[in-house]
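Lab meeting, action items carried over

1. Structure of the three-component assembly. Owner: GW. Status: complete.
Input record:
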Amino acid sequence: MAKPETLNFYERVYEVTRMIPYGKVTSYGAIAKCLGAAGSARMVGYAMNGASNLEDVPAHRVLNRNGLLTGKHHFKGTHLMQQLLESEGHTVKEDKLQNFEDKFWDPVEMVGFKT
DNA sequence: TTCGTGACAACGG
DNA sequence: CCCGTTGCCACGA
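Predicted assembly:
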């Protein structure tokens, strides 16, 4: 008997990722924590794997806790993710987002979306 | 159901 | 800051 919530796990990630404001970024752990699955940060990225094709889901705004563009290799273009971030006013150096903490957007403080 | 995998995170050195 | 190891949980076969 699988829980219905687990089935929405991917949708959860997509929704949170979609609501990421322009010029902001977040981490997998933050999203996972926002969903109530703090220990499932890996699943967030796993879910994003299918989202990388969805333009509705700005997966390029999702980085690891260190601000590294860990998933850039999964995008259509090798450096597409970095260019997208730079296009939004960010600064990327060696696959690493500069001033990451300043641009970090915590979804937990936005959890009040309540569907 | 079990096994293996993974765009992470946290800890120790 | 970098490096290696461990834990985490959902998904696919």
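2. GW to write a short summary for the group page. Key points so far: Chain A has six helices and four strands. The longest strand of chain A covers residues 26-27.
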